[in-house]
Every structure is written in structure tokens, then in C-alpha cells.
Write a structure and sequence with these properties.
There is one protein chain. The protein is mainly alpha-helical. The chain is 48% helix and 6% strand. Strands 1-2-3-4 form a four-stranded mixed β-sheet. The radius of gyration is 20 Å and the shape is globular.
């Protein structure tokens, strides 16, 4: 019954099978061929700034990244339809005609707090850090429920932020499975942890409370479309959430330069009079891709399977592979 429901859901979200066809070619041999093509493309399109010590501005970094995304989308032949799942990750402001596509584990809680002040949901005097996380994630309007959503998507300014794929899923693991997220209405240990435990240990004795990082990576890296739990928004590929191959963003920032990029966006949008600076996270889960506590749990096969699954994110957003320090 559950498999049939998942199949019905897949047909509704992907009626013509374009996502699943795109995911189907991700065999190891094909991944290596695509990687070789991309390296050639990268060398051909590499942009050198004026001089070695030059520090590019957020706008310059974004323009380079946008060009890189277009090249990667063309090289990988990614063309995804804009569906309700994507638009359910887009907040909009009709007054300023802007859209923010949020990706979980990429400072989205901080940005949503900013959005609440921009849209007048909280007063200008409100201290952003005092806004409860539940309120932040449930009170903002989503493009999926808006009137004239297609018109807004075509005409409003749009921005998004990305993060190194490994750092992002490591942060998700530490937040949702290694620890217990008491503020979430979704019980990750019960809904995800138990299924991982059952799948790889054939038991649920620990109730999903002691899932290892290697088990988690193995679970989310399995080839194919994936189950609902494998496609959770906290670790599904970033390009499948915001679809930069199908949506033209005016600005793409990075978590690695979040403060500088976010403050630039606030200035670009002309809202510094409302929000004088980008707030720090109240619950940062620092994730370093080479932290031996986690990185050393993965053998070469696990690393390659993860890279294959998140290939489009690595290439489109110009992130190095796990083995390169």
C-alpha cells in the first residue's frame, strides 16, 4: 500500500517522468564520463579576476556562479518542470516584488525571520532572534498557494542560497538524527531513523536513536527516485528544490559567505531601513566536510555514491568533491 501511494505521489509530482529519467543515468560509469566532460567545460569557462589578491564582491561572485549554473545545466542536460514542491519553498513579497527560494540547512531560518519583518508579520521593533522557530516555519506565505504564481515567478526578483552538499547533509544529520530536534513537529528518529535501522540492521530495537553517519549517507545516496524519507527537504538535492536550471535567479549566494552575501541582498533590495543586518543563527550546527569523526566513517565507495547522487549540486554550484582538500 505504501509503495502504491509513493508511486501515485511520484506520478502527480512528475507526470511525464522527466525527473526519474534524469536520475536513471546516474551509474558509476556514466558519472565518470559526465565528470570528465564537466572538467573540460570548467577549464574552458574558468574566469580569472583582475589580479591574484583581488576579492570579488558578492554581486561578482553571484554573476560568476550564475554563469557556472547555466553551463552545468546545459552540459548535464537538466531541464526540470517548476512544480508545487519547488513553489512550496518560495516566499514572496508583493510590495517589493521579490521571491526567496529557501533550502533547509542553508540559513533559511535566519532568512525567514528577516522575511517576517519585511512583510510586516512582526513589528519593526521585534528582535529577530526572539521569533520562535515554529512561527518562522509556519506563518510565511508560499508561492505555491499564491494567486498569479506564474506571473510572480516570471516578473519578481528572485534569489537563493546554496551550501557545500556534504556540509549541508552533515548539518542535517547532526541536527535531526544525531541529536533530537524537540522543536520539530516531525519525529526524524521515528520516521527516518527507524526505517534506516530496519533497512540496514533488520531491527528497530533502538527506535532510530543511534543511526550512524555512514548509514545515513548510504540511505540518502541510493540511486533512483527514492522514498519520501530519502527525499526529505533537509537533504534532497538543492537543485531539485529551487531548480536554477528552470528558474532564472537574479542572485545566488553561498552559505560559506552568508553574512556578506546576505547583507548585500538586503542592500540590493533596499530594505536596510527595515533590517539593519543579517541575524546570526540561534542554533548553528557547524559542519566541516573533513571532520574525521564523520568523514572517516565513509569508505571510498560511500563517497563516490554520495557524489554520484549529488552530482548536479557539486557541478552546478561549483563545489569541490570530498576527496579534494
Amino acid at each position: 500500500m505504501e509503495d502504491k501511494q509513493q508511486q501515485d505521489h511520484n506520478r502527480r509530482e512528475d507526470p511525464d517522468g522527466r525527473w526519474r529519467m534524469m536520475l536513471g543515468w546516474r551509474s558509476m560509469k556514466q558519472t565518470l564520463v559526465i565528470l570528465a566532460v564537466f572538467i573540460t567545460m570548467l577549464l574552458a569557462s574558468y574566469i580569472v579576476f583582475p589580479y591574484e589578491s583581488y576579492v570579488p564582491t558578492p554581486k561578482e561572485r553571484s554573476e560568476v556562479l550564475k554563469t557556472h549554473v547555466k553551463d552545468a545545466c546545459r552540459t548535464l542536460n537538466i531541464s526540470l518542470p517548476v512544480n508545487s514542491f519547488m513553489m512550496a519553498h518560495m516566499h514572496y513579497d508583493d510590495d517589493r516584488k521579490i521571491i526567496y527560494c529557501f533550502i533547509p540547512k542553508v540559513a533559511c531560518t535566519s532568512w525567514k525571520r528577516v522575511w517576517m519583518k519585511l512583510t510586516g508579520i512582526v513589528t519593526p521593533e521585534t528582535n529577530l532572534s526572539t521569533i520562535a522557530r515554529y512561527t518562522v516555519h509556519t506563518k510565511l506565505p508560499l508561492l505555491a498557494s499564491a494567486k498569479d504564481k506564474s506571473l510572480k515567478l516570471d516578473t519578481y526578483k528572485k534569489f537563493m542560497f546554496v551550501r557545500h552538499p556534504f556540509d549541508r547533509v552533515l548539518s542535517a544529520y547532526k541536527d535531526k538524527l544525531e541529536n533530537f530536534d524537540k522543536e520539530s513537529a516531525y519525529n526524524f528518529h521515528k520516521q527516518v531513523g527507524k526505517k534506516i535501522e530496519k533497512k540496514y540492521r533488520n531491527t528497530t530495537m533502538s527506535q532510530g536513536h543511534n543511526i550512524t553517519f555512514s548509514e545515513f549517507i548510504r540511505f540518502i545516496s541510493e540511486p533512483g527516485w527514492g522514498s519520501t524519507e530519502q527525499r526529505n527537504e533537509h537533504w534532497i538535492s538543492m537543485h531539485e528544490i529551487c531548480n536554477p536550471c528552470g528558474v532564472e535567479y537574479d542572485f545566488i549566494g553561498k552559505y560559506e559567505t552568508i553574512k556578506e552575501d546576505s547583507n548585500y541582498v538586503l542592500d540590493w533590495l533596499g530594505v536596510k531601513d527595515v533590517v539593519d543586518g543579517f541575524p546570526s543563527s540561534d542554533r548553528p550546527f557547524h559542519a566541516r566536510r573533513y571532520d574525521p569523526k564523520y568523514f572517516n566513517q565513509l569508505d571510498q565507495k560511500a563517497k563516490l555514491e554520495f557524489f554520484s547522487k549529488y552530482l548536479a549540486d557539486f557541478l552546478a554550484f561549483n563545489y569541490d568533491f570530498l576527496g579534494a582538500k
